[in-house]
Structures are given as C-alpha cells and as structure tokens.
Amino acid sequence: MSERSHILVIDDEKNYLLVLQTLLEDAGYAVTAVNDPETALAFLEESEVDVVVTDMKMPKITGQGVLQRVKKSWPHIQVLIMTAFGSIESAVEVMKFGAFDYITKPFSNDELLLSVRNAAELARAHRQYRILQAAMEDRYGVHKIVGRSRAIHDVLSMVDRAAPSRATVLITGESGTGKELVARAIHYTSPRKDKPFVSVDCMALNPGVLESELFGHEKGSFTGAVAMRRGRFEQADGGTLFLDEVGELTLDLQVKLLRVLQERRFERVGGTVPLEVDIRIVAATNKDLTGLVKLGQFRDDLFYRLNVVHIPMPPLRERREDVPVLVTHFVEKAATENNMPPKSFTPEALNYLTGYEWPGNIRQLENVVESCLVLGSGAAIGVDDLPPDIRDEEAQFKSAVDLLPVELDLADTLEKIEAALIRRALARAKLKQVDAAKYLGISKSLLQYKLGKYGITGH
Ligand SMILES: Nc1ncnc2c1ncn2[C@@H]1O[C@H](COP(=O)(O)OP(=O)(O)OP(=O)(O)O)[C@@H](O)[C@H]1O
Ligand SMILES: [Mg+2]
User: Fold this and answer.
1) Quick one: which of 341, 375, 421, 427 has the fewest CB in 10 Å?
2) Span 385-424, pLDDT tens digits
3) Cβ < 6 Å from ligand 1: which residues?
C-alpha cells in the first residue's frame, strides 16, 4: 500500500479548516476538508478515508455524533476530536465512544501532527488486515473442497490433521483430482495462512532456470543476471512452498532440494551467504514416486523427506457419489462466472455423468458442466446436450462394471444384475408388465418367467 493516508477534516469554521488542510497536506497527507458534518458523512460513503479529524462543537451534528456514525459504519476509520479548551468532560465522553484521541484547542502543530500520524498508522494496519482478510475469504471460498464420499472425507480429515503442523505433505493422484486445491486448503487452514502461498511448477521450467527460480540468484552470477533476485524459497518465508509436479525434478536438483529440506538453509545461485527460511513444503505429483525410486530416477532419501504426511487423491470414478454435488457446485460457479442463471441437469443426464469414467477427473467434469451450461439451449440440461463421448454406451458399461469387485461369482453376479434391471424396468413402467417387457426387449411371457424366478412381486 503505497498511497498516502487519506484524512477527512471537519470544522464549521472555514478559516480554521483551511489552516488544518494546509498543515496536513504539507505533512504529506491526502486531505479532504469539509465545513459541514452532513456532507462529510455523505463523503465517507463514497471514499476510502483513514482518519477523520473533527471539531466537537458544530451546528446540527456534533463531533460526538460524527464519531458515533463513523464507528457504526466504518469501525476501521480512526477519529480524532478537537475540543475547545475547558470541555474536558465531553472529551472523556468521546473516548468512551471509541475516539482515537482528542486534542484541546488551541493546540500546537506538532501536537496535532503526532496524533494524526498515530491514528493513520493504526488505520493503515486495519486496512491491510481487511484486504488480507477479504483475499483469504475469496480464495478459501473459491477453493472449497466439495464432496460427500467416504474418500473425500478421509482427504478432508487428513487436511485438518496436517494443517496445524509444519510437517511436509506429499499429495499424489491422477491429473485433475484436486491436488493443488488440497495444497491450498492446507495452507489456508494452517497458522501460516496470512503469509504467502508460493507455487512452483517443476515441470514448466527447464532445470537451469528452475534452480534460480527456487533459490534466487546474485547479481552477475550468470549472463542475464543483471540484478539480484529472490527465489521462491525466500518469497515463501513464513508461509508455504508448493512444489507441483515434484516428480519432474532432475537428480541434480533433487540433491539441492534435499539439502534445503534437511538444513532449512541455502544460498542464492552465485552467492556464498547462507540464507535461512521458515517454510512449510507441500509437494504434489501424478507420477508413481515409489516406482521412480526403484528405477533410480528419484532419490529415495528425498522421497522419504517429502512423504512425511501422504495424501492420496482418489480418482473421481472411485467416488462417483461425489458427482452430483460437484455438478451442483460447478453449475453455481460457472453461472456466477459467466453471469447467467444456473440450470439443472435432468436425472437422465446426471446418470450419464455419474456413470462416466472421467479420465481427466474433476477438472474434466468442471469443463463439461461449464460447456453444457453455456451451450445448452433448453431450460434444463438433458442427455442430448452432453458431449458425445459421455453419452457413449460402451463407457457406460465399463463404468458400471468398475463398480463391481474383481473377485466375484460370475453367475450369481449376472443374475443379480438381471434382477436389478428387471426391477428398474418395472418401476419405470409404473408396474405395467407389457411396457417393462418392451423396455427390456423381451416378450411378456419371458418377463413373467423371470419375475417368478427372481421372486419379484409388486404387480
Ligand atoms: N473436491 C473438489 N471440490 C471442488 N472443486 C474441485 C475439487 N477437486 C478439484 N476441484 C477443481 O478441479 C480443478 C482441478 O483441480 P486441481 O488443479 O487442484 O487438480 P490437480 O490434481 O492439481 O491437477 P493436475 O495434476 O492436472 O495439476 C480445479 O478447478 C479445482 O478447483
Ligand atoms: Mg495441479
């Protein structure tokens, strides 16, 4: 926040007002001077003010009235009251109502400036806090982890348990399963939440650049290093460093990273002074790190350092019960972002979404939901509005089969599936056997035989 503090001065004596304005402007403040309290209050509605300096005795609204209104609507604004000499009692009174300070007229310039400076500093701290708070709520609101499956509950409880400590966390899982979301959730529920969350994508940068990106460099340490630069480790001091796609690190950088994790100190590229930082590391990968360790492509000592708390992200197809809540969540999100009313999916369309494989996991679901919302023409989103590969019957079968355990009794399972399909057809046909038989593509007599075989009644 580089701008100057903004001071609003209120005094019904115009000459006095002018003197105050000049004095405060000369001291480097942005000043608005108003000789009528009502106008001043209206001005506050429209502007960002840090400190109000107001006279006590004014017609219509007194200084105390101004104070009360300000404290009610803008508690972060600091109010300084000027009282005439001799009215100490009312001065004490205004302090009770939350004035920052009072000064008795006549006062010296230094006296006023000192008081204004203190008030401005406090207001500034309040303002910074409010900005941070808003940014955090924003982030955390956007980064809400949605889901009702057992698997996502397990993830959330791991996040809760891991957040308070400084333990290194390794998040693994397929692409689009929410690894970064979980990393942010850990940071924003941890005691480090007011400090930076700094993210490094180990895949996006080439090894040479990555080193100076992580550790920074000293001026002149290599061609192009025209000025000293702080690396991500320094930027994240006090906060969380998120190493995304950590499986992509070269062996050389793995050694360097291991050293920092062990010693919590490092040097900038081309530098000799060791720097100490207080950071928490959260790493993520969609690679099988244990596999890479066996192949000699990932150092086992680094793996153990990173894998202190391990949070595996389950693929979406293993927690299909989350699909409907995620759909609702993404409809709302996309509707807000695209400034359009939300729509719902028909139960049939939702069935297809729930049954689909989702190789791109939640990111893919989010994209599908957004495109359906934007492109769909009807009041609700139906099966026809879905992308073709999601309507694919093969995929439907595959995902239905995925729900079953690998070890099973084939004949018994097939019978159970048959019975379930017959029950569903009957229910959809409102128990009319002719219609149910039609749905299933069999004769009514065959249906009746099967109803008897499975002991299905209700007709
Ligand atoms: N449980 C969830 N609730 C709400 N949104 C989610 C959830 N999981 C993931 N998302 C959203 O899905 C998208 C993909 O998530 P994220 O980027 O965290 O995945 P990732 O595992 O880091 O993917 P990649 O491996 O491709 O980098 C993001 O927009 C994220 O907000
Ligand atoms: Mg990611």
Assistant:
1) 341
2) 999 888 876 666 766 777 788 888 999 999 999 998 998 8
3) 145-147, 173, 175-181, 286, 329, 362-363, 366
Cα separation, 417 vs 128, in Å, equals 61
- Among 273, 278, 280, smallest CA distance to 228 is for 273
Ligand 1 mean position to 202 CA, how many Å? 18
Q: What is the pTM of this model?
A: 0.62
Q: Which pairing describes strands 169-172 and 309-312: parallel, antiparallel, or unpaired?
A: parallel
The minimum-distance atom of ligand 1 relative to the CA of 177 is: 21
- Domain 317-394: assigned CATH number: 1.10.8.60
Determine the distance separating the centroid of ligand 2 and the alpha carbon of 176, expressed in angstroms: 7
**For ligand 1, what atom is nearest to the CA of residue 142?**
31
- The domain 143-312 having CATH identifier 3.40.50.300: the answer here is yes
Ligand nearest, relative to CA of residue 333? 1
pLDDT tens, residue by residue, 208-235: 788 888 998 888 777 777 777 888 999 9
Q: How many angstroms separate the alpha carbon of residue 145 from the centre of ligand 1?
A: 9
